[in-house]
Design goal:
The protein is α/β, with parallel strands linked by helices. The chain has three domains: 1-50, Orthogonal Bundle (434 Repressor (Amino-terminal Domain)); 62-154 and 289-312, Response regulator (Rossmann fold); 158-282 and 321-334, 3-Layer(aba) Sandwich (Rossmann fold), CATH 3.40.50. The protein contains 13 helices and eleven strands. The protein has helices at residues 9-16, 20-27, 35-48, 54-61, 78-90, 105-117, 158-173, 188-204, 218-226, 242-254, 272-275, 288-303, 331-334, and strands at 66-72, 94-100, 123-126, 139-142, 146-147, 177-182, 207-213, 236-239, 264-266, 283-286, 317-320. The N and C termini lie far apart (76 Å).
């Protein structure tokens, strides 16, 4: 019985027509490797199915060549994770996906610390905010912010500005009475979206009729709408996530309020499922692919002691107004039940 030999760096070099040292430089993301050479080496790696020998690397460098990606126990960041995984493998690392059942930053932070303490991975890329304590070794990078010594990391500072733009666009449609269905306030992303909402309403002289905080779950949106009185003047509910926004729409319809004629609703994340709802949810598209790749580059640069890559130049978010946001009708005409 014949055994198929695992392709080596030398096989990749021979197929690409370069030296094995050049392949090694490619795997280290050496900027001196030319574009044409990059293309040939990548094609050779893909054709051969080459993967670096992680055991040999660990014995030689005391590095496992493995990085972990931590996900919360809810869907959403899959695009970011797919892009980050692809980038890690391109840079010569294997990926271990870890899903945290407990969704709080504290619980996920303990998970990250435990993974690093076991020495099974070199670093952790988190698709969600963490609160990791300082440690002697190991690196944690969040897809949006970075801290090389495992101090606390922050959510996207642009969340406040994006929320301000959402409120501004709703105000341009004529909305004056708002309500915010917020996320859990131990998450910095939820805090920033909440503060952005409140600041935007105050700065524009708009009326906020309250904020309802809860988990990243449709039930938060349901309870938020249930908290509104029958005669509420609110014409727009701004949700901190698509999951919450779906709950808002469900509860509003149950109360006999039409979406969007009686109530405009916005979400956040641009989950694939909300694009095909009836009506399609207005939301914030997050460029998770670019964010995931950039986060992985930063993680691996930190592991290698290399300079941190240049910050992303493109805005990571885009507001998409779809079918759940229209001009408000007079509440006197709506006749809410």
């Amino acid at each position: 019985m014949s055994v198929q030999r695992r392709p080596t760096m030398y096989d990749v070099a021979a197929l690409a027509g370069v030296s094995h040292q050049t392949v090694s430089r490619y795997l280290r993301s050496d900027p001196t490797v030319g574009a044409d050479t990059l293309t040939r080496i990548k094609a050779a790696i893909d054709e051969l199915g080459y993967r670096p020998n992680l055991m040999a690397r660990a014995m030689r460098t005391r590095s496992t060549g493995v990085v972990a990606i931590i996900l919360p126990g809810w869907s959403g960041p899959e695009r970011s994770v797919a892009a980050a995984s692809e980038e890690a493998r391109r840079l010569g690392y294997e990926v271990e996906i870890v899903i945290g059942v407990e969704q709080t930053p504290a619980a996920l932070s303990r998970l990250a610390e435990d993974i690093l303490a076991r020495g099974q991975v070199d670093g952790v890329l988190s698709a969600t905010p963490l609160m990791v304590r300082a440690a002697d070794e190991g690196v944690v990078v969040q897809t949006d912010e970075f801290d090389a010594r495992l101090r606390s990391v922050e959510a996207v500072a642009g969340d406040e500005a994006t929320m301000d733009e959402i409120i501004g666009r709703l105000a341009d449609l004529g909305h004056r009475d708002f309500f915010h269905a917020a996320g859990p306030q131990d998450w910095l992303s939820a805090q920033l979206r909440r503060s952005g909402y409140l600041k935007a309403c105050e700065r524009r002289g708009l009326r906020s009729h309250g904020v309802y905080d809860g988990p990243w779950d449709p039930e938060t949106g349901v309870e938020a709408v249930r908290s509104l009185p029958d005669d509420t003047p609110v014409t727009a509910v701004v949700a901190a996530s698509d999951h919450i926004g779906v709950g808002v729409m469900h509860a509003a319809v149950r109360r006999g309020w039409r979406i969007p004629e009686d109530l405009s609703v916005t979400g956040w994340d641009d989950l694939k499922t909300v694009r095909y709802g009836t009506p399609a949810l207005s939301t914030v598209h997050v460029d998770r692919e670019t964010s995931g790749r950039h986060g992985m580059r930063r993680l691996i640069a930190a592991l290698r002691g290399e300079p941190e890559p240049e910050p992303m130049t493109a805005a990571p978010t885009e507001i998409l107004f779809r079918e759940t946001t229209v001009k408000p009708r007079s509440t006197a005409v709506i006749g809410r039940r």
